[in-house]
Amino acid sequence: MTAEERAARAVAIARVWVGTPYLHQGSHRGVGCDCLGLLRAVWRELYGCEPDGVPAYTPDWGEAGRDEAFFRGLSAQMAAWNGVERSGDVLLFRMRAGAVAKHLGIAGAVGAEPTFIHAYAGHGVCESALSLPWQRRIVARFQFR
Question: How many CB atoms lie within 10 A of CB 108?
């Protein structure tokens, strides 16, 4: 499978999860998941196993500290972003200045009207516009190997 095919497959898998309720540290389609659970599910479908080193984390979006566990884990598991935005990129967000980056999404559409697929409290798994406020929170992009 080429990188482009893998990226397209990741988006297709993530879109099947739209409508799954939010459940902190869950990863079961139709039952509940969080942003990391969605990424874990996509990974399982692509590679047939769980990703290594999935960190435990609190649901506090404003968690201060220096341990960038998601960044470290994604850096170890995924390819660094090549500078070209594409569907299937894994997006890492910092929700507040000074907080650790710990929200994840998968780029859906790119171009003039970009979207991303993610899960968060009160909304579950959804495909949202990657608006300027969301774009400003992006800390890093990664790509499936």
Answer: 22
Task: Give the sheet arrangement for strand 115-120, strand by strand.
Answer: 79-80, 138-143, 90-93, 103-107, 115-120, 124-129
Indicate the SS3 state at residue 74: helix
Whose structure tokens read 């039952």? 31
Please name the residues in contact with 125: beta carbons below 8 A apart, sequence gap of 6 or more: 14, 17, 18, 19, 20, 22, 33, 38, 117, 118, 119
pLDDT digits over 49-98, tens only? Answer: 988 877 767 666 555 567 888 888 888 889 888 888 999 999 999 988 88
The owner of tokens 């099947």 is 16
Predicted TM-score of the model (pTM): 0.92
Helix 35-47 × helix 3-16 angle, to 10°? 130
CA distance 54 to 37: 10
The residue behind tokens 């929700």 is: 95
Measured over the CA atoms of residue 11, residue 13, residue 19 and residue 25, the dihedral's sign is negative
Q: What are phi and psi of 92, to 5 degrees?
A: -115, 125
